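Might I ask for a little of your time on a matter of protein folding? Here, with my thanks, is the record as I have it:
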Amino acid sequence: MDRKLRNRILLYLLLAAVLAYAGIRLSERKPAPKIAAVTPVRENLISSISSNGKVEPISPYMMRAELDTFVEKVYASEGQQVKKGQLLLELDVKDAAAQLAETRAKLLQAQDNLRAARAGGKPDEVAKVLGDLAKAQAERDRLQKNHDALLHLIKQQAATRDELAANELELTKAQAEVTRLTAAKQEFERSVRLDSDRTALQVEQLKNEVAALEEKVQQGRISAPANGTLYSLPVKARDFVKVGDPLAEMADLHKVRVRAFIDEPDLGGLEENQPVRITWDALPNRTWLGKTEMIPKQVVQRNTRSVGELLCSVNNEKLELLPNINVNVRINSRERLGVLSVPRGAVEIEGGRRYVYVVKSNQLGVGKSTLEKREIRVGIADATNYEVVSGLQEGELVALPGDVDLRDGMYVIVVSTSAGNY
């Protein structure tokens, strides 16, 4: 390499060094951004899960029509407090009531017939059968005595053969009548036995019909099965209802169930008996307290969300929460006492790791401080703060980003600090 070329290269290198030095000096003179910073403090943190839910009665009673008919009368009103056994409404069961009266009369007659059959038959019929037979037997016996007397008189030649023949003819007729009436008596007794069996079956059938009609008539009287609130009464007088149609719904609403729809990522923080707070947009100044009861066992699709259905028991002493309304649910899932915490805004997340920018060589409002990017481990979080498990000490100063993109080694001027609950 000739001397002239070597000198030119050295000149270029010297010029580059001068320019680099000048750039560094200029950057040091460039005004450092002003930031705010916070000092981590110890406080109590409560991690919560928020979602929406729906109010349900715990033990609802659904009353449905059990026959096709018209609503006759309505005695209660929706929202009313009712007592067990209180009549709520009546259905038109006039036809069933008329059939019941007729069937009861048939049952009484059948029961009378059964008693008579088991006693050997109806008294007048029994008396006639036995009386006719006894009369025929008496007539036969009378003719038999006359026959014996005529035979004796003929031997004494005091009666004729013609008189004996006439007697024997009458005696034969009388014996035939006794035989006929004896057979009739036996047939009557057999018939009575058959009637007894048949009537017993008829009595049982009529009893079943009476019971069915009584139940049908009773189905026309809709009464409260327990004490509670009548929260649904969809029918009015003269409405026609079919079997299975809902007539009324009621339950004890002093304690209700809230079915909360918890997003899948939050399900791991749920346990039984965690405190629950319920709010309702219709009563924005009211809060209802309860606890978790049944943890979701599966995840279901609800619109665009994958959720587990969490069941919560909620006190409702003033009966303000109504079945089927939509409410807001907040579950306090975990609590930490006296833990070091920093604002969520001070924590930067990269690749699943969390970092903060610690202010070093701090001179508040005077000169510059540098930032150190430091990884921290966090625990639970509430709406505004993270629990710091490791990576920070009490008293250290942590930068808040504000409008500035923070970097490791960056010069900053700290203009304000704060400590305490954020």
DSSP finds four helices and 22 strands in the chain. The chain has a mean pLDDT of 87. The radius of gyration is 53 Å.
